[in-house]
UniProtKB/TrEMBL annotation:
Mg(2+) 1 binds at residues 209-210, 290. The keyword Kinase applies. Mg(2+) 5 binds at residue 386. Residues 15-148 form the NusB/RsmB/TIM44 domain. HAMAP family: NusB, TMP_kinase. One of its GO terms (biological process) is thiamine biosynthetic process. This is Multifunctional fusion protein. It comes from Defluviicoccus vanus. It catalyses: thiamine phosphate + ATP = thiamine diphosphate + ADP. Pfam families: AIRS (PF00586), AIRS_C (PF02769), NusB (PF01029). ATP binds at residues 289-290, 316, 385.
């Protein structure tokens, strides 16, 4: 007997296929984008009604993948379907609803994880029966059978399996699993540094949360106070990127169960001192949180709240062609510091320079004095956490533009210049190492003087490193070009991404 959960999840997948076919049909008729259809769908048709009553809520992952996948590859799918139809007797013209079933089935056969092709084909034949009472289900069977036969066969017998999809990085996972839940306008499509919440006053609340984990964000040997400082620093940096003034924060702490009482006491004491050092940057301090013992490494989360005058938050979406691109402070120090802390000092590197860079790795300096002063002056802003190129690419994708930066214009500290003199191979860390917690923003040239004045008032240096250009062609191409003396640099990665195979680069 099958466990009931499996039956449940099979039904959720059936519901997802049905919903996907309807959405694909709607996309074709209305010309709307997949994301819009999906958002409307989740808002308006939940819970199920009418013909769908017998089905549980759809498997959101499958639904999202089918809708987005079909939209991204409609032409390819249609051409494969039409080739098969042309080989059959009679007209190749088919109704849009039938075509929607075939597109979804063809996409699932080609691109989605290991459900046997036989099962997939059956599911779409059933959908054919749900909508039609004559020969259409047989046509679905024939077309999908032919498509399946063209797929690589992994084992003899009746089970056809598709290739494993590539590993999803953090952003793809967020997009597929969490974005469909974030339908509130203030969620900003889960694509900005923080979320906005209108609370019926002249201000909007700005909310952000960041987790830091031992050996992922900080080193096991890092002083406990620096971990407290880093936790608040990375959250404050997101508020600064939104142009928000910090109000208060919540704190969640998971301490390893294996630690002795003495170790736990000593570490939490140091951690709290680090929090106390950074906390004055908030108008109020700690509001609440949670403390647990866990069979895992240290894992710390803060949720920071800030405020902006309503409608004035800095967003990632507004960059325009011709904007100048600016960064605050110096770039690359923390990534160099991390490398020196883990790999030791290359011959010739002075310990004082190394200590400066390691301190920059341990203690982010969130640009909370600058962010709010940029309100009204810049078109787009983000903080640099994953890497200069990766975070600029986030702005570009959100804004539908490209960027060209001049590597020689990137501001470097004396300590970084000193290290690079002895270890020039570490140069790429500047562009893609991350952990900078500086601001990157784009603005029209006409605002330059006002931005310079804001930077002076904030006591933070800023540098212009490039220009915004028109949208990429093709749209999925990397949006950021890094130039050195007129030549485009080849980069192995653009920055840090959790779950990605190249995250250590
Ligand atoms: N588990 C989650 N649930 C909801 N939203 C998430 C989740 N993880 C990340 N996000 C959102 O996805 C976006 C990208 O995440 P991230 O790169 O961590 O943001 P940031 O670099 O600004 O801290 C942000 O808008 C963030 O709020
Ligand atoms: C021990 C250690 N290894 C590697 C890194 C590099 N690193 C880890 S996470 C990260 C990116 C920023 O962290 P993330 O969780 O993505 O924060 P967010 O972008 O969400 O603010 C970088 C550059 C580090 N900081 N510490
Ligand atoms: Mg990140």
């Amino acid at each position: 007997m099958k466990p009931p959960q499996r039956v449940g999840s099979q039904l959720s997948r059936s519901a997802a296929r049905l919903a996907a076919v309807q959405a694909i049909y709607e996309m074709e008729v209305t010309g709307a984008a997949a994301d819009t259809i999906l958002e409307n769908f989740l808002r308006q048709r939940w819970p199920w009604s009418g013909a769908m009553e017998a089905l549980p809520p759809p498997d959101l992952d499958l639904l999202t993948r089918l809708i987005q996948g079909v939209q991204a590859s409609t032409e390819d799918l249609d051409s494969a379907i039409d080739t098969i139809l042309e080989g059959r007797q009679g007209s190749t013209r088919i109704e849009l609803l039938l075509r929607s079933i075939l597109r979804a089935g063809a996409y699932e056969l080609r691109a989605l994880p290991e459900i046997p092709a036989k099962v997939v084909i059956n599911e779409y034949i059933n959908l054919g029966h749900a909508f039609y009472s004559s020969g259409e289900p047989a046509l679905v069977n024939a077309v999908l059978d032919r498509l399946a036969a063209a797929l690589p066969r992994q084992s003899p017998g009746d089970t056809l399996r598709r290739r494993r999809p590539p590993v999803s990085g953090e952003f793809d996972l967020i997009h597929r699993f969490f974005r469909p839940l974030a339908t509130a306008p203030g969620a900003l499509g889960l694509s900005d540094d923080a979320a906005l919440l209108a609370v019926g006053t002249a201000d909007d609340l700005v909310l952000t949360t960041d987790t830091i984990v031992e050996s992922v964000h900080f080193l096991p040997g890092d002083p406990a106070d620096s971990v407290g400082g880093k936790l608040l620093g990375v959250n404050l940096s997101d508020l600064a990127a939104m142009g928000a003034e910090p109000l208060a924060y919540l704190l969640s702490v998971a301490v390893p169960q294996a630690w002795s009482d003495e170790r736990r006491e000593a570490w939490l004491g140091g951690f709290a001192r680090g929090l106390a050092q950074m906390q004055p940057l908030f108008r109020q301090g700690l509001l609440g949180g949670d403390t647990v013992a866990a069979p895992a490494d240290l894992c710390l989360t803060a949720t920071a709240l800030g405020r902006v005058p309503s409608g004035s938050a800095l967003r990632r979406t507004g960059a325009r062609i011709g904007d100048a691109i600016f960064v605050s402070g110096t770039i690359g120090d923390a990534a160099l510091g991390l490398r020196l802390a883990t790999d030791g000092l290359p011959p010739g590197v002075a310990t004082a320079a190394a200590a400066t860079l390691i301190d920059r790795y341990r203690w982010p300096r969130p640009r909370v004095t600058l962010g709010p002063r940029l309100r009204g002056l810049v078109h787009a802003a983000a903080d640099v956490s994953d890497g200069l190129v990766a975070d600029l690419a986030h702005i570009c994708r959100a804004s539908g533009v490209t960027a060209e930066i001049d590597a020689t214009a990137i501001p470097l500290s004396d300590a970084a210049l000193h290290v690079l003199q002895f270890a020039p191979a570490l140069r790429s860390l500047i562009l893609t190492g991350g952990d900078d917690y500086e601001l990157i923003f784009t603005a029209p040239a006409a605002n330059r003087a006002a931005i310079d004045a804001a930077a002076v008032a904030a006591e933070v240096a800023i540098s212009c490193i490039g220009t915004i250009g028109p949208a990429s062609v093709p749209p999925e191409a990397e949006p950021v070009r890094v130039m050195v003396a007129g030549v485009t640099m080849a980069l192995e990665s653009t920055g840090f991404e959790h779950f990605s195979c190249n995250r250590k680069k």
